[in-house]
Design brief:
434 Repressor (Amino-terminal Domain), mainly alpha, Serine Threonine Protein Phosphatase 5, Tetratricopeptide repeat
Length: 324
């Protein structure tokens, strides 16, 4: 019997021991096969599988590397080399070496593109992103960024405030109040779709946070979804029956729901603040530009004073805004 035939017998014995979870016996059989025929890649990949089951991931990686080298030296089928690389990736992933696992899976795909290897790479990339995101979390830095956002918000620099709130959220993505604060920025910038998403995130994190409901009501008003505003105020009043802003908002909804649109418009036109805005030549020019190019409003909203005037006209029901 040739050495190759003898090696195959040891391999079969190793496979039988492996299936019975007799791992030490399997290791002995595979090593005997390698001694007789060191050019056969499958002996190495099978041996690596045993170490993987034993949770000896560093040894598994070592054997996989040997399998790849052996396969390349002896022009083994690329599918077998890919199998060794994928097994190395699995071991690195189990060991927590996600970046090394990613490299192994990428190399496996260059040898043989299989759905399993693509899926494994995608999963480990997601884990890397999640790990990086978690490593970035720092509540102390988040609080600092939130404080900076508050200062810029007070000065009317809503765009800069939004950037600091966004950084605060990355540093602490479970703080409902920061999402609410950023929603206030987006509202001032008339980015109502983004503001609504942040309000919903805030409410989901803390269903008892009344301010998030109040801000959501303002956003819905800004979007012209007046029919939905009343229920939001109702929810706020369920949480805090004495909330003055919610009481006032609910009353106004009730009045507006029975009011004639034209009457509402006339009442808005009698508001001194609205009259002042409409009599401002620069605002009139901007409004005319907006009629021809609705998207132009986003540039004007970068100026805090103009953003405030637009919001007043929007709340009065005198203009509508195309969402970004």
């Amino acid at each position: 019997m040739s050495d190759r035939e003898e090696a195959q017998k040891h391999k079969q014995a190793g496979n039988a021991a492996y299936s019975k979870k007799q791992f030490e016996q399997a290791i002995q059989c595979y090593n005997q096969a390698i001694e007789l025929d060191s050019a056969e890649i499958t002996y190495y990949t099978n041996l690596a599988a045993v170490y993987f089951e034993k949770k000896d991931y560093s040894k598994c990686v070592e054997i996989c590397d040997k399998a790849v080298d052996t396969g390349r030296e002896n022009r083994a089928d690329f599918k077998l080399i890919a199998k060794a690389l994928a097994r190395k990736g699995n071991a690195q992933r189990k060991a927590g070496n996600l970046l090394d696992a990613k490299v192994a899976y990428e190399k496996a795909l260059t040898e043989h593109r299989t759905p399993e290897n693509r899926s494994a790479l995608s999963e480990v990339e997601s884990l890397i992103k999640k790990k990086d995101k978690e490593a970035y979390i720092d509540p102390e830095i988040s609080a600092e960024e939130k404080a900076k956002g508050n200062e810029f918000f007070k000065t009317g620099d809503f765009k800069t405030a939004e950037k600091h709130y966004s950084e605060a959220i990355k540093r602490n993505p479970t703080d409902a109040k920061i999402f609410s604060n950023r929603a206030a920025c987006y509202t001032k910038l008339m980015a109502f779709d983004l503001a609504l998403a942040d309000c919903d995130s805030s409410i989901k994190m803390d269903p008892s946070f009344v301010k998030a409901y109040l801000r959501k009501a303002k956003v819905l008003q800004g979007m012209g979804h007046n029919s939905k505003v009343r229920s939001v105020y109702e929810k706020a009043l369920e949480i805090d029956p004495n909330c003055g802003e919610a009481i006032e908002g609910y009353k106004n909804c009730s009045i507006q729901s029975h009011a004639d649109p034209e009457e509402t418009r006339k009442r808005a036109m009698n508001d001194p603040e609205v009259q002042s805005i409409l009599n401002d030549p620069s605002m009139r020019m901007i409004l005319e530009q907006m009629q021809n190019d609705p998207s132009a409003i986003q540039e004007h909203l970068k100026v805090p004073a103009i953003a405030e005037k637009f919001m007043k006209l929007r709340e009065a029901g005198l203009i509508s805004v195309v969402q970004r």
